[in-house]
Specification:
By secondary structure, this protein is of the alpha+beta class. The protein folds into 2 domains: 97 residues, Roll (Ubiquitin-like (UB roll)); 129 residues, Cytidine Deaminase, domain 2 (3-Layer(aba) Sandwich), CATH 3.40.140. The chain has 8 helices and 14 strands. The strands form 4 sheets. It has a 6-stranded mixed sheet with strand order 10-9-11-12-13-14, sandwiched between helices. A hairpin with a 2-residue loop joins strand 13 and strand 14. Helix 1 packs across helix 6, helix 6 packs parallel to helix 7 and helix 7 runs parallel beside helix 8. The protein is flat, with a radius of gyration of 20 Å.
Amino acid sequence: MSTPPRSVEVTLVHEWDKGQVRQVQDYLAGEEPLEIRVNGLPLTVTMRTPGHDLDLAAGFLLTEGLIQRRSQIAAMGYAESCKDTERGNIVEIALEAGISLELERTRRNFFAGSSCGICGKASIESVRVRGIPRPGAGMRVDPEILCRLPDLLRGAQPVFQRTGGLHAAGLFTVAGRLVEQREDVGRHNAVDKIVGWALGEDRIPLSDSILLVSGRGGFEIVQKAAVAGMPMVVSISAPSSLAVRLAREMGMTLVGFLRAERFVVYAGEERLEMASRPAVVEMRH
């Protein structure tokens, strides 16, 4: 019987420190392929950190436009009929009667990897044709609250604290309360795990929520947040040009370089209560 995939693994390493070498035990973030099957047929494979796999699969189906609500999933669970080496790495989903997927066409649109996210279909036009509604414009957030979010998320990352090798996504209220967090080797997977959790809790759309992601804010992150109805995406690092274009078109707020007491707003600055603060205009070289 094979060992189920784990989110953390232990290994022996050699550490070099100022000319001294010692053998120590170290922790590694788990990384395993997860195959998602729909109605008995393989849909996609993504490299992920084991844990919250059903949330990941459900979130993936929603953010990629294959379902619109949780009730469209009739059944979901780990595959029973598989090799021992595959156990825990295959999720099977049965959709409710009447929902059909063009799986051959759908499969061609997906390529999931632990670093790049969903590639090959990253165009704003693909979002337009799906008719994703723009989030409401009424939400307002105190900029000082944003500055507190990274420490709150980092303090709630148990696997990162042991391995130092994971991305995270955190769902926050406008008051800065951490509602839920997920970790994964892929930041897009961490977001799908959050969305899948919210889908199961009947919280979609997340119209009064802030999404914080570690690393950069790419197109796929903004797209997934838009599908889930999140009006604000905040990243620790830089957004991409396509992410900025999508956020502006969708009427979302996109913040990058959130570090200490500084951040940069790339879209939707009206949701941040900055109007009364003096502004200095300067050109970057």
